[in-house]
Design brief:
The complex is a heterodimer of chains A (142) and B (431).
Chain A lengths: L1 E7 L2 H4 L6 H16 L3 E6 L7 E6 L2 E6 L9 E8 L3 H9 L8 E5 L14 H18 L2
Chain B lengths: L5 H27 L2 H22 L5 H19 L4 H16 L5 H20 L6 H11 L5 H8 L3 H17 L9 H23 L8 H19 L4 H15 L24 H16 L6 H14 L8 H14 L3 H15 L1 H11 L10 H12 L3 H14 L3 H15 L9
Helix pairs in contact in B: 1-2, 1-3, 1-5, 2-3, 3-4, 6-8, 6-9, 7-8, 9-10, 9-11, 10-11, 11-12, 11-13, 12-13, 13-14, 14-15, 15-16, 16-17, 17-18, 18-19
Classes of the chains: A alpha+beta (142), B mainly alpha (431).
Chain lengths: 142, 431
């Protein structure tokens, strides 16, 4: 299963303050661990919210609000996408992130098979049914 | 983590085991020079963790805790075996050396060696003295951290069979005195290809499953992918390692598009490309780039990855670069000649240069004994004949293919095409 480890924003990350050299080195080592263990699929850091925007929906109306956004703790500053066997394994990896403070939120990624059938395109089922009918028709008149 | 419920702690220990077990066994095997004993010691340490951690909480560095517990047990064990006095001395030495950098950063002191130890473990688990089945079981057990039960589920065999396979494999390694080392020079290439073969076999077991536990099958693909990614970091200078990783990533990217809602197979050219996993495609293309950057001619895995990449890059089936695919199959046929590769080359040639060109090559394969009974030969031939308007011959080929396939849904598909030929309609194009 796949999990996203979401790094929450901090006043520093929102102010565009870059992490110290030590912090960057520690993070590099951690990423290397993830890669060597064969669990990391992707991971990126995000610019502060002043460089972003929000699009909100209300019926047909779209409203665009430019950043920055104030509720720092609710913002996301980066993420890892990892492939693991259990939520506990994801927690264990998240616990190893070399942070001194802050928060990481772990969220499971939907797998295709978890979607109910009506969400999947019905063409395949349709094609299958047509095929079966044709074979039966053929079998009926030898 | 103190304060967790006991069951939570157990699940946390499972997770730690999943992450640490291979490194733990590898590190111990270097010291005791016996993977069987190393695994026993690692298991003992796991039992100790299961006893102590629910009380004490999970230690801050669980890997180091397990390693030092196991090492102490190793020393206790060997002390009890007096006649192994000399070995004990050696062991004490190794132990001290490992402990030297201890307290503040035990792990960092071991860091450089961990990669080497893991690699030794990979080569030992895939050693040629073992049967293929034994290599697969041992690799999943020692490197994947899978339980005997999980391996048994995945391969649809009784648990006792797997358990016995693993016990025998460990005994064989001990009896043959297989050294715990990374092979050098000329031996390395042959031994590496044995490792890659085992990984790809695990992948294919999961990927081409026609039966079995639906949950465990994709898990095998994931496990093979993980092993492939680990190998790519352990031996980063071997292009074929990246070739295999790339091949598996791209093949796995189609996993959810290749089966319809009621389990029927969907051929590559009919797949909904929007449902391909683009994270995996990106990783696969990057792995292939790494293989290419290392220089030299592409090996069989990298060539197959390059073929898969041609499909992955095409936004629509019509955009597929069939001329390039035909050339890649040509290179593959020269490196690893096989009738199945020729058959695939024929399909590519037909797509690139027209059905007549493909049929010419297919017709040279009909007498091939190893393809006798292989349903894809008449299926491909039927397809090409139909495209050339030779519908009566095409129908016969589709019917023959239908009688040869063991997959019910595939049979249905082939009978539909045969029926279409009979009606004189051109059947839908497929690859």
């Amino acid at each position: 299963m796949r999990f996203m480890m979401l790094v929450k924003a901090s006043p520093d990350s929102e102010a565009g303050v870059l992490p110290s050299r030590e912090a960057v080195a520690a993070m590099g080592k951690y990423n290397e661990e993830l890669i060597k263990a064969g669990v990391m699929l992707a991971g990126e850091g995000l610019h502060d919210s002043s460089k972003g925007a929000r699009v909100s929906f209300s019926g047909q109306r779209r409203t665009v609000t430019d950043g920055p956004f104030t509720e720092t703790k609710e913002l996301i500053a980066g993420y890892w996408l990892i492939q693991v066997k259990s939520k506990e394994e994801a927690i264990e990896w998240a616990s190893r992130v070399p942070f001194e403070d802050g928060e990481i939120e772990i969220r499971q990624v939907f797998e295709d098979s978890e979607f109910p059938p009506e969400v999947l395109p019905p063409e395949e089922a349709e094609r299958e049914r047509a095929m079966l009918e044709e074979v039966q028709r053929k079998a009926a008149k030898p | 983590m103190v304060g967790m419920a006991a069951s939570d702690t157990h699940r946390a220990i499972d997770a730690v085991w999943r992450i640490e077990s291979a490194r733990l066994i590898a590190g111990l095997a270097r010291i005791v020079r016996d993977v069987g004993l190393a695994e026993d010691l690692a298991q003992d340490a796991l039992v100790a963790a299961l006893e102590q951690w629910p009380e004490s909480g999970v230690p801050r560095n669980p890997g180091a805790w397990l390693m030092s517990t196991a090492k102490h047990r190793a020393i206790d064990l060997l002390r009890r075996r007096e006649r192994l006095g000399r070995k004990l001395e050696e062991l004490g030495h190794e132990f001290e050396a490992a402990e030297e950098g201890a307290a503040p950063d035990f792990e960092a002191a071991l860091d450089d060696e961990i990669g080497d130890d893991l690699l030794r473990l990979v080569f030992t688990a895939c050693h040629p003295v073992l049967s293929t089945d034994a290599r697969v079981a041992l690799t999943l057990r020692l490197l994947g951290g899978l339980t005997t039960q999980e391996i048994a589920y995945a391969f649809l065999v009784p648990e006792a069979t797997v358990a016995q396979r693993i016990v025998r494999a460990k005994r064989t390694l001990a009896e043959a005195r297989v050294p715990f080392e990374v092979p050098r020079g000329a031996e390395l290439a042959a031994r590496l290809s044995s490792v890659l073969e085992v990984i790809y076999l695990v992948f294919n077991e999961g990927y081409s499953a026609t039966a079995g536990d639906e949950w465990m099958r994709p898990a095998l693909c994931e496990e093979a992918l993980r092993l492939g990614r680990i190998m790519a970091e352990l031996v980063p200078n071997e292009p074929e390692v990246h070739g295999l990783a790339g091949l598996m990533e791209i093949q796995a990217s189609r996993m959810r598009a290749r089966v319809g809602p009621s389990g029927e197979p969907i051929l590559l050219l009919d797949q909904d490309r929007a449902r391909w996993d683009h994270v995996l495609i990106r990783r696969g293309l990057a792995a292939l780039e790494r293989a290419k950057r290392l220089g030299g001619a592409l090996g069989p895995y990298a060539l197959q990855a390059a073929i898969a990449a041609c499909h992955a890059r095409a936004r629509t089936p019509e955009e597929t670069d069939w001329v390039r695919i035909a050339a890649l199959y040509d290179a593959l046929a020269q490196l690893a000649p096989s009738p199945v590769v020729e058959l695939n080359r024929a399909v590519a040639l037909a797509m690139a240069f027209g059905p007549a060109t493909g049929l010419e090559l297919v017709d040279t394969l009909t007498a091939e004994p190893s393809l006798k009974g292989y349903y894809l030969l008449p299926s491909v031939r039927g397809d090409l004949l139909a495209k050339l308007g030779r519908l009566d011959e095409a129908r016969q080929e589709f019917e023959r293919a239908a009688s040869l396939t063991r997959n019910g849904r595939e049979r249905t598909l082939l009978l539909v095409r045969a029926a279409a030929c009979e009606r004189g309609a051109r059947p839908p194009l497929t690859g």
